[in-house]
Prior knowledge:
This protein has helices spanning about 1-15, 45-50, 120-130, 160-170, 185, and strands at about 20-30, 30-40, 55-65, 75-90, 95-100, 115, 130-135, 145-155, 175-185.
Amino acid sequence: MAFVLLWPLAMVARAETPVTLTELRAERAQDGLYLSTQLKFDLSQPVEEALYKGIPVYFIAEADIVRERWYWSDAQVASARRYMRVSYQPLTRRWRFASSSEPLSNAGLGVNFGQYYDQLSDAMAAVQRISQWKIADASDLDVDARQTLRFRFYLDSSQLPRTFQLGAVGQSDWHISVERRIDLTRETGK
Length: 190
């Protein structure tokens, strides 16, 4: 009976991994809209242990641009996704960072950017820094309309092996996310 009473208290005591968005900047260029962001967070011990065991961890950055409409719900103008994977190669003792605009798979097909690092901190720095990411073409943007950028970054637990997905349910150690909105009308200088 004591276990039943203590278990909910242990779940409440854990806090989700705090994510700080130190920079979120949208820049309008002739060919489109570019996003730069800097995140700051530390991996929880269970996530770090899974990485050291060779389990890849996936992150997703989403950027949606919506145009406000008074007569209906907001219209989505543009949408961009960046899929990132961090994995540990035990034989070489190196960390691999992969990034793509399409979902990453173990098949290795598709176009993606990959880089190897000697330290986990270096690989995580690559995840936490997004620079000059094109999120919309110039033809998608309407300079006269009020538009909002919705940015979301999170750890994608659906990509984890099934045993980790079941174990991660209800555990805030695996919950890494941040979401922000910025008014593009004000931000990009209209």
